């Protein structure tokens, strides 16, 4: 193995000046439109995924509860 040479590490820090907060304002103003676009693009996929994952669990819980309640009457 070759000897390792020390590599100087540098840190980059990004800060936002209190006088330049319009950057944040623009991001917040665009957020509702981006959210609507995200749901339009991915909504069907998420709906299918959640139905495939959670509907069987919900049905199994419901079925077990019906079995528990059946012997009470």
Please name the defining characteristics of this protein.
73 residues; 67% helix
Structural features, described:
It holds the Pfam family Cyt_b-c1_8. This is Cytochrome b-c1 complex subunit 8. With 73 residues, this protein is an all-alpha fold. The protein has a domain at 43-73. Helices cover 67% and strands 0% of the residues. The chain is built from one helix and no strands. The chain has one helix at 22-70. The radius of gyration is 27 Å and the shape is flat. The model has no long low-confidence stretch (mean pLDDT 85).
Query: Spans with pLDDT under 50 lasting ≥5 residues?
Result: none
Number of helices: 1
User: How many beta-strand segments?
Assistant: 0
Query: SS-based structural class?
Result: mainly alpha
Helix content: 55-70%
Gyration radius over CA: 27 Å
Order of helices and strands: H
Distance between the termini: 77 Å
- Beta-strand proportion: under 5%
């Amino acid at each position: 193995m070759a000897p390792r040479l020390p590599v100087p590490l540098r840190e980059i820090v990004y800060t936002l000046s209190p006088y330049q907060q319009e950057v944040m304002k623009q991001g917040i103003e665009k957020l509702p439109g981006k959210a609507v676009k995200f749901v339009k693009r991915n909504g069907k996929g998420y709906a299918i995924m959640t139905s495939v994952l959670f509907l069987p669990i919900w049905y199994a819980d419901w079925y077990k509860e019906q079995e528990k309640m059946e012997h009470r009457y």
